[in-house]
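Example: Acyl-CoA dehydrogenase.
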Amino acid sequence: MHPFTREHDELRSAIRQFLQKEIAPHVEEWERAEQVPRTVLRKMGELGYFGLNIAEEYGGGGENPLAEAVLHEELGRLNASGFAGTVGVHIGIAMRPVYRFGTEEQKQAYVVPGVQGEKIGALAITEPGAGSDVAAIRTKAVREGDGYVLSGNKIFITNGVYADFYVVAAKTNPEAGHRGVSLFIVDRDAPGFHVQRKLEKVGHHASDTAELFFDDCRIPADRLLGEENRGFYLVMQNFQWERLMIALQTLGTAQAALDMAVEYAKTRQQFGGPLTQFQVIRHRLVDMAVEVEKARQLTYHALDLYARGIDAVAETSMAKLTATETACKVADEALQIHGGYGYMNEYPIQRAWRDMRVTRIYGGTSEIMKEIIAKRMGLLP
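Written out as structure tokens, the predicted fold is:
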């Protein structure tokens, strides 16, 4: 069972064709360059792929979370998580809260060009001392005159070097814990804002990740996103979609890893025949297929609930937990089936293996997902 219509299936076909023609031939090049060309992102914007879940008045195709879900799953299936991360963070994590909670002026300034691919966004929450614990952030925003002054630093920020604007979490009331967090939109040319350094990662090479520094960074008061001291709740509201997006992308990559393993096992000759002549290999591939399908059905179920406006905090957490754990396991098994060749850079399975590991960390660790589910089960006070 899945929630998609014939129109979604047609969209999937078009996206897959575009990705195979325009993106797949360049993945290795962009991985080495550690950057995705702006021209590609603008082209995706022109084709409407950045506005699949955005109202027409802002340049989108209408609010349709299932359509954007198709894009994320196909991005994952491309086995180019660096590219997928650049796109996903922009449309699903940075632009999304501006669209949902921003003023009309903010939407015109950031969502409209964001849909077109003319501006790229990043979300800046994580700090050296605050990862899963959002309430522990130390970056401060102090009201001065007709604006705010931000001071502090952020780390592990996807699109951190690349972005034109940043949705930044900062404390406006340091004594109030999570009730003192606010969100701000910071332009990359804001006085006092610096990209401190680009970080070197194990995987996701085409997606830049950076540490940011706010050195008495001054922004106008109209860059406050939503109400002051309500930022924590806005972040929590967007987490359901972020985690679904991660589940969908990793689900796509898990399927890609399975497909690569099946193809290799059919063609690799050992002991006078293909690897599939051995029952242990056949059964391993079957087990992988079962795990991928289980993750798919759970993810689609959570997506269906979310798309229908039903509270799906537990289900989206389950989907994120299951899809990412499955993707890591399947990629590892697929590499094992490839043998020594799987560990060589010329075989794309190594990229899936490297890229999937971090998915159990970002967007909420597997341990945090289990705690959320446990709370929904009534297991926590």
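The radius of gyration is 21 Å.
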